[in-house]
Write a structure and sequence with these properties.
Layout: E1 11-15, H1 23-34, E2 41-45, H2 47-57, H3 61-77, H4 84-94, H5 102-111, E3 124-130, E4 135-139, H6 144-151, E5 161-163, E6 166-169, H7 179-184, E7 189-193, H8 208-229, E8 236-239, H9 257-277
Parallel strand pairs: 1-2, 1-7, 2-3, 7-8
Antiparallel strand pairs: 3-4, 3-6, 5-6
Amino acid sequence: MASPPTKARRTAYVLGGGGILGTTQVGMLRALAEHGVRPDLVLGTSIGALNGAFVAADPTPAGAERLAEVWREVRRDGAFLENPVRQAARVARYRTHLLANAPLRAIVDRHLPVDRIEDLAVPFQCVAASIEEAGAHWFDAGPITDAVVASCAVPGLFPPVEIDGQHYIDGGLVHSIPVGRALELGATEIYVLQVGRVEQPLRPPQRPWEVATVAFEISRRHRFVQEMASVPAEVAMHLLPSGAPESPSLSLGYGRTGRMRERMEQAYAASTAYLESVPISDGRG
């Protein structure tokens, strides 16, 4: 009797949200590229959508280095941080957000080699939360800048992004680290690139300001916890370590160039050590 055919390997990168802590993923991507792990599919949420689009465009060590350069420009142009006086003026004028998304749009437009998702070197999807539909919307085709900026539109920080008459905000509200999506799309080996928050155990709040942060963190990570618990035994799962001693929920203080570089190097060192300790594939099946 003939043996059943072996299922082809399908390697997915899953990049979660994390704002300015997204430099963590740059170090992980560098480690993966240097170890010859090439994705067949890239999924991103929020800042993971930005990083994911770049690795989908060029999943090589050179591509990881270019992404590091992009992050230096993110810091220089204030895509996620801005002069407090300008922030106050914008809140007074618009009432709903602190930052314009024009700098982020400019960075994506300037550095990505393609304009449409379907033209990337590796299949890519990113998620945003639809206001009108109160649910997740996955972008797998069409203009890439709109999709990435929509996925990164943190409420209160950026304005909603309008696409085809619908308004979208941060994808982390619906899929903080979309492991389930990778499984739905047939991934047999998954590399999870997270910014370190899921490595931090949650404890009951002890101070008034901790009540909101603990509640928010539960809402952000509960779906990820459920999806990780339901991963089939035959799927190879790799949760890459951040190497960081802490990963706070509110991370604007990590926007300084030195702190961003530090997290990148910590993640690179920790993920390199991890990849050298476990059997990995080259992603070609």
